[in-house]
């Protein structure tokens, strides 16, 4: 197995903790976003410099009230709080057994984001990390179309600004911040990360 | 807003907005179902009774909502 930076492993565990806390059934990009914010570190400091409103508490709160769904429900005149209140308060106790597999919206973002990162590395725009770290996860979470980007938009946080902040942490000294490619094919870097991710999916 | 109004508003939407609205409703329905299943179990309903109300199989509802240690 390839080596991975501890931050990648820690972020995955934090994302799984979010899944279990909520009693959800799969790991989605929004769980990973909260997990990444929860573990802290250099990349989190960089994204919070770009978007100070993005705290772990704010992201968790946005996820828990499905902030990205609210405008769509409101358009129909549906008040989710009222709907859920009809069932009474949630009871304490253990949550349903969690099965660790990845939500489709996140799976679909993983390969393209990793391939784009590999393309930038190949072009010499980024530093060559010894091991893939949490920045890879950040770029996957921030790929257009994920639920995390929709939650961020609902929080008035720009995924593009966050991605730029992540790329700054990966950029070689003296080099300009590279433009994030629009499309790319899977690469070796992706296959290594994918091997790691599948270990979690298979559990 | 009654059900006819909801349906009319939903079907007037652009396709992308309509699909996104369907996703939002599905997530809300999932949360509502989880809360009611929990409440039903606490009030002593069996998995078979819950499954009958939700019009799914007992295996489906157990797989989806059972907690660690729950009897089958």
Distance between the termini of chain B: 40 Å
Count of extended strands of chain B: 0
Radius of gyration of chain B: 16 Å
Biggest chain pair contact, residues each?
A: A-B, 25 and 28 residues
Helix content of chain A: 55-70%
What would the principal axes of the Cα set say about the shape of chain B? elongated
Oligomeric category: heterodimer
| Unreliable stretches of chain A | none
Structural class of chain A: mainly alpha
- Counted up, domains of chain B total 1
Low-confidence stretches of chain B: none
Label the structural class of chain B: mainly alpha
Average pLDDT taken over every residue of chain A: 86
Strand content of chain A: under 5%
Mean pLDDT of chain B: 87
**Helix fraction of chain B by DSSP (H/I, runs of at least 4):** over 70%
Shape of chain A: globular
Detailed description of the structure:
- The complex is a heterodimer of chains A (203) and B (72).
- Chain A is built from 11 helices and no strands.
- Chain A has helices at 6-22, 29-39, 42-50, 56-64, 70-75, 80-85, 104-122, 134-141, 147-154, 159-170, 188-201.
- Helices cover 59% and strands 0% of the residues of chain A.
- Chain A has 203 residues and is mostly helical.
- Chain B has helices at residues 3-12, 15-42, 47-54, 58-65.
- Chain B is elongated, with a radius of gyration of 16 Å.
- The termini of chain B are far apart.
